Amino acid sequence: MKYSLGFRLQLARRERGFSQKYMCQILKISAPTWSQYESDNKEPNLTKFRQIVKTLNVSADWLLGLTDHDANLKGGKKSAVPKTTKH
Asked: Domains in the chain and their CATH numbers?
């Protein structure tokens, strides 16, 4: 299953212990804008995306859903997104 950009943003932010307010301050954006990123109602432009990757210390490929692995998240090379069980 592919997880959305918003889901991955929230997962990485929480793992780093960053608040939404902190991300807004770093990126110089409003709280509603960050909330829209995490709820998949808006996507960051390329400049903001680069800042997010650096701030959260994750790979762009992982954030974009091109891979389910990011060595900088808990679990290292293991999948950083939850596994779903098939019924």
From this structure: 5-63 (1.10.260.40)
